[in-house]
Amino acid sequence: MANSTAVQEAIELTMASRIPLFTSVASLTWVLHDYLATVGDEVRYVWPSRWNVGKILFFWNRYYTILLVAFDAAQIHSFSKFRPSLYDCVLVDILTRVFGALGLWPIEIIMQLRIYALFNRSKPIAVFNATLFMASIIAFCVILAHNVGELSAKISFAKALPIPSCPIVHVELEWAQWVPPTAYEGVLFSFTLWRASMTLAAKLRETKGHVTFKENVAMPTLHSLLVQDNLLYFLGICGLLIFNNVMSTSASRIPWFSFGPFHAAGGIMTARMLIHLRKTLAVRQEKVYNAALAQLDKTHPAQLATVVDVRASRVHRRADTESTLVDDSAVGT
After folding, report:
1. For the chain, which domains are there?
2. CA–CA gap between residue 333 and residue 330 (Å, rounded)
3. What are the C-alpha distances in Å from 272 to residues 45, 58, 67, 131, 266?
């Protein structure tokens, strides 16, 4: 009877370990495909900008995501070829979670910057969010340290079975490890909803039929763009974290897909969001500039050639829209 139970458990663990073999490769393929699909916009709208915090965070998210998902795929496939030791399994499990957190935390810093911009560079809100951010990091590390001992015991028991690779096991409080970042995302999302409701109320109070110069060029302001993107982005990130929490629970019937899809989705959403911001602002600046040229051509046609020459010499510098990410007043609200 004991042998029958052990065989059944070995079969279940073996079957469970096969799922990440496919999802990790699919995640890497997705990341590489998205990179090739968007690298043209990256070169055009990101590369010419000056180096600052925003640009560093973009490149960290962009290329660290590729390396992280490649590490997931390489580790899962290499370990499937032999029976790694207990030490190797525990070490890799911890490193995978820490490496994943190093990809998630910069994303949360970017989200803080966007909230900072939405609330007109409010220092109290920035300090409040930064404090909660540090608290979520500390809570994550404490729960991770607590889970290591139980994880080692569970892996040790599973390693006694005749299975390849590292067994997929879940400790009792594994789901709690991702609760702090999920709760923090919820706080940031609440700020976005608050700002969106304020923006909607302000629009409803506006005088109907009043048309400004910005509305004539039919492009959104940075403020409205941030509100729109943040709502979708925060929903996506919160959804990923919640799904990851559910997948980590022992009672869940959802199989373990590995961290690959989670890492890939978070990195892709962040990169596309930042590229979309830069692209939209660059196009908006171009339309504003063309409208100004048309007006100048009507009023002072003799000065038009001089203005066009100056524009041509500064075209690459105008691609730098990063400062508007945290300075809402740069383009108006």
Report:
1. 2-330 (1.20.1070)
2. 9
3. 12, 10, 18, 27, 10
**What are the tens digits of pLDDT across the range 238-276?**
888 888 878 877 656 788 888 999 999 999 999 998 898
Cβ neighbours for 19, distance < 8 A, ≥ 6 positions apart: 255, 256, 257, 258
Dihedral angle over CA of 224, 227, 228, 234, nearest 10 = 170
Three-state secondary structure readout of the chain:
CHHHHHHHHHHHHHHHHHHHHHHHHHHHHHHHHHHHHHHHHHHHHCCCCCCCHHHHHHHHHHHHHHHHHHHHHHHHHHHCCCCCCHHHHHHHHHHHHHHHHHHHHHHHHHHHHHHHHHCCCCHHHHHHHHHHHHHHHHHHHHHHHHHHHHHHHHHHHHHCCCCCCCCCCCCCCCHHHHHHHHHHHHHHHHHHHHHHHHHHHHHHHCCCCCCCHHHHCCCCCHHHHHHHHHHHHHHHHHHHHHHHHHHHCCCCCCCCCCCHHHHHHHHHHHHHHHHHHHHHHHHHHHHHHHHHHHHHHHHCHHHHHHHHHHHHHCCCHHHCCHHHHCCHHHCCC
CB-count burial class (<10 Å; 0-12, 13-18, 19+) for 184: buried
- Taking the whole predicted model, whether its pTM rises above 0.90 is answered as no
Indicate the burial class of 240 (C-beta count within 10 angstroms; 0-12, 13-18, 19 or more).
buried
Q: Per residue in 156-191, pLDDT tens?
A: 777 667 677 777 777 777 788 888 988 998 898 888
